[in-house]
Amino acid sequence: MNVRRRHISAVALTAVAALGFGTLTACSSDSAAAGDTGTFDVVASFYPMAFLAERIGGEHVHVTSLTQPGQEPHDLEISARQTAQLEEADAALYLKGLQPSVDEAIGQSPIATKIDAAELTALEEHGTEAGHGEEHGDGHEDEHSHEDEHGHDHDHEGGDPHIWLDPVKYAEVAEGVGKALQKADPDHAADYRKNTATLVKDLEALDEKFRTGLTNRTSDVFVTTHAAFGYLAERYGLTEEAISGLDPDTEPSGARVKELQKIAKDDGVTTVFYETLVSDKTAKTLAGDTGLKTDVLDPVEGITDHSRGEDYFQVMEANLTALRTALGAR
Fold it and tell me: CA within 20 to 30 Å of 62's CA: 92, 136, 162, 178, which one?
């Protein structure tokens, strides 16, 4: 077990206590790989993974996130310092297919415990430009692959990686992470098991809130800038129409914008959703052209001062409120 000083965690916990937060909501990638903690060292790829590690590991783990609060996870480039940090950690928790540079760095690292969340639940195919393209006859290509400015291919052929936005799938991942930590750090297995059960129960309660909160609605269709909500839509019988594909940086075609205008009119769409970590320009342009409102639907890829809550659960409940309003739920 690595030994290092809990510098960042102490600062974070002080801030949490000062603000009255009950949960550590963000972990900094500036945690230095030095010092003495005596805890099980987990490096998480981005916020949803760090949140799981914090909730399940509790006081027995020291969690560091490779993605800074406010940084768009898809664009992360691993630094030499972070690569060295990975090599000194006890475990890495990541979601293969979301962050190519993380996949590469973890794949090449000698770290003993590598936990891939994508292997802990079934991934599905989502994220075409049109959520029900055949119905509208669009003929758009599926945007599973997009090469970024760094030459990385954002390949999602293994399926849509946004599993944490479905509370049921996120609970499945939580159970898998709990078992992995129990195996890797058996001295604290009982606590990991207990914390996992508590987290799963909380996620089941969140699922029930979504089920009951979205039952009586006037529309099933919602429009987003980024095709992150495929699992959530499928879980609750909704249809996501995304301006872009699975990668938030993908620009929509003119034909797609026109099609969305028609979908909005035909399906009673009232709102174009945008997110906190990506520019809202496209959403506001589309909304302005169609006379629609805009609102935030947060993919919870990171917690910032602009987030509608201090942790995963608070932001997801804010998402439910936004969806209820947009879909006319009573």
Answer: 162
Residues 43 and 49: their CA atoms lie apart, in Å, by: 9
Helix (H) or strand (E) run with residue 186 in it: none
Task: Please give the model's pTM, rounded to 2 decimal places.
Answer: 0.79
For residue 245, give both structure tokens.
């594909």
**How many other β-carbons are positioned within 10 Å of the β-carbon of residue 197?**
14
Paired tokens of 186: 């058996």
Tokens 């060295």 sit on residue:
84
Cα distance between residue 102 and residue 267, in whole Å: 39
* Per-residue pLDDT reduced to its tens digit, 139-160: 333 333 334 333 333 444 568 9
Q: How far apart are CA 60 and CA 51, in angstroms?
A: 14
Buried b (16+ CB within 10 A) or exposed e, 300-322: bbbbeeebbbbbbbbbbbbbbeb
User: 113-116 and 91-94 as β-strands: parallel, antiparallel, unpaired?
Assistant: parallel
| Helix 47-57 / helix 167-184 crossing angle, nearest 10 deg | 60
Helix (H) / strand (E) element for 115: namely strand 113-116
